[in-house]
Structure formats: C-alpha cells, structure tokens
C-alpha cells in the first residue's frame, strides 16, 4: 500500500509539474504487476483506479524494473532523509557533497 500511495503521489506531482513523458523505475516487480493488471489486485482497487486515471492524464507513462544496484543514489537519498529527519528537500539547495560524489561515481561516463 505504501508503494502504491507513493506512486500516486509521484504521478500527481509530475502531472502538476506538467511533465508529458515519464519513465518510472522501481525495484518492486509487484508494483509494476499491480499497475499493469489491477484486476489481480482487488484489495487495492480504489488506489489502482486513481493511478490509472493519473496515467491516462499524462501523455506517456512507462514502468521499468530496476535492480538495487542501479538505484543506489535514490536509496542513499531516501536513507539520509529518514536518518536525518529532513522535512524539506535539501536537493533544491544543491544537495550535500556526498551526493555529488555518488552521482559522479555512478554516472555512465565513469563506467568505461
């Protein structure tokens, strides 16, 4: 339920920001399955209907399965928010130095 509510919030936020084409990556195969085949998840019918409406209001929405290894920066950000009790985004202010270093280390340019 938490992942579905998070997805609903993300879709609503991206719609409000007027994004037209989005790709959502997640480690949760169950989340992708629920969105693609909501009839198999009757317990979550109401929230899946809201998600479906949001998806239909955005020009293109795609879902991709991600591995934990490919999502390390997002995981580090989430952990820092929980660990440090952050109530406001620190990314809008440029983010901390450790984040810049992680992004540089994981960028495709450094994969060669």
From TrEMBL:
GO terms for molecular function: nucleic acid binding. This is RNase H type-1 domain-containing protein. It comes from Brassica oleracea var. oleracea.
